[in-house]
Structure formats: structure tokens, C-alpha cells
């Protein structure tokens, strides 16, 4: 089942989401045509139950390959986030809007406005499903065009601030405490895809770039760097895949430990893989004309979004010492057992 869906999405993205399209949208071009193609394909409804119109009934584990492709193709719209947001809205009985949906969290200002300092895909999304910090069980569905937007470092992101009257009119539901866990494992899956893309491009470059009469990949120092990259990429992918499982039940309910391990491990790999790939490329990968930077910019941005590795390491440590697990080995088993709940 996974290959059927993944092959179909890969074919769509190969046609509609080339790096030329990504660069155009990052430069301020419209994202509407790409989103319409994705919407028309039905992938944004992949996590909806089959009982709902257009729902495919996939679990998040089933959909992992789709989420990973979002990172591998540097998809410049929040497809992975929209899949999850639509499923959460359906579970809560809230009417699902058309268009793309980003995820965010932020505090209330003194005047009652909600301020989300950095919303991943905030510049190109139509809606934001937001958690109000300090009221962690409350989720609000807010239109982006009702917010005051400010630019962020990443070209697709934005700071968004909604006035109090927009919050009062927004549909809401309980369950916001899990939103950060959902965002963490979605970013982990996309990081896994971007990490694979960086590794494959670096391996190809090492086998093609000639120095002193032979490919640089023949030199032992480069081979060592490639082997370290491979270890990080594949360990991160396994962690991200486990983060998208929640036992054997077909539910979206996130497992805090697995989500924390997934985001911590992929964020940790992002720094190492980005540094090694640029080292092997001799720094040419930093240039705007070179495609590598499209992916390594995402590694750095997604590493920090929804908490970097130190944040999630703290949560893992808390789960270890709060009495849930008697030994470290029990925690490792809980995080890696494919059938554990």
C-alpha cells in the first residue's frame, strides 16, 4: 500500500514540484498552482477516515513515505501539515476548510492577540491550526489573511499575529497539548527525506568531481565523511519512521517518547549532515545557483522548528526519571519495539 501511494505522489511531484518551481515560490511567486495540483490528487486527505468524503483511511505509519517525500522534494507548501490538520479537525467534528494548513503555537499578547513568532510555511499557507500557549488544550483554526504578517529568516515562513476578534470568531477544539508532538514528528519525517536527498547528491558529487586525476570519492578522507553521513541519515530515518507509529492502533494520537526520539535524532543528524555535505562540496554548495543549499537550508530551519534536539532530549530525560521506566533499557525498548503501544 505504501509503495502505491508513494509512487503516485512521487510522480506528481516530479512533474509539478521541480527545483525550478521551488525556487520560484521561495522567491515570492504564487504557490496556488502547485497546491491545486496537490489538492486535486487527494493526498491532502490521505489521513482522513474512509467514511469521510475523499478520505483514504491511512494511518500515519502508512503515510510515512508520503511525508518523507515532502522533504525529499523540498515541497514548498505544507502538505504534511495539512494531512494531519485535516484529520485532527475531522476527529474534533470541526468543518474542514479548503486550502493548505500550517501548524503553530504562540502566546497571547496583552491586548488579547495571538502572536506566533515563526510559523513554518506561514507565508504560503491558507490557514494555521494554532495552539495557544498557556491554554495548552485549546486549538484554533485561523485564516492567514486575517493575520498581520512579518517576514522570517526562511523564505516560506512568517511571523503571524491575529487580533483578539479573529480569535473569538475562530473554530476551536480541545487537544492542543498534542499539537507540538504532531509537528515534531511531521518535521522529523520531512527532515529524513531532506537528509536522504543531501546524502544522495553528495555521493553523486563525490563520484563525479575529479581531483588529481581521480574522483574525490576515491580518497579515504572523503570516504570516511560519506560513511559518517550515511550513519546519520539512516539512523535518523529509522527514528523518524518510529515517530510516526503509535502502537498497533489506527490512531493519530502521538506517542510522546517516540515523537521526542524522532525529532531529537533527525535534528542532531541535520547539523552533522549539512556540515559534511558542504565540506565535501568544497563550499560551492552554499552558492545560490547550486541545488544543495535548497536542502541544507531546510535542514537548519527544520532542526530548530518545534524545538531543537536539546528540547527533546530534555523530554526524553524527564520520561526516564519520572518513574515511567525503571531502567534506561526499558525506555529504549519502549522507543524501538515495533509493536509496543
Question: Would you kindly provide a brief summary of this structure?
Answer:
Helices cover 52% and strands 12% of the residues. By secondary structure, it is an alpha+beta fold. The strands form 3 sheets. A 4-stranded mixed β-sheet has the order 1-3-4-7, with helices on one face.
Helix-strand blueprint:
Elements: H1 2-16, H2 19-26, H3 32-41, H4 64-72, H5 79-92, E1 101-106, E2 114-119, E3 127-132, E4 138-143, E5 148-151, E6 158-162, H6 164-169, E7 172-174, H7 179-208, E8 210-211, E9 214-215, H8 220-243, H9 256-280, H10 292-304, H11 309-321, H12 328-336
Parallel strand pairs: 1-3
Antiparallel strand pairs: 2-6, 3-4, 4-7, 5-6, 8-9
Helix pairs in contact: 1-4, 4-7, 7-8, 7-9, 7-10, 8-9, 9-10, 9-11
Helix content: 40-55%
Which strand order spans the largest sheet, edge to edge or round the barrel? 1-3-4-7
In angstroms, what separates the terminal alpha carbons? 23 Å
Helix/strand-derived category reads alpha+beta
Question: What is the number of E strands?
Answer: 9
Proportion in β-strands: 5-15%
Query: For the CA atoms, what is the radius of gyration?
Result: 20 Å
Spans of at least 5 consecutive residues with low confidence: none
Tell me the number of helical segments per DSSP (H or I, 4 or more residues long): 12
Largest sheet: 4 strands, mixed
Q: Helix-strand pattern, N to C?
A: HHHHHEEEEEEHEHEEHHHHH
The pLDDT mean sits at 92
Shape verdict: globular
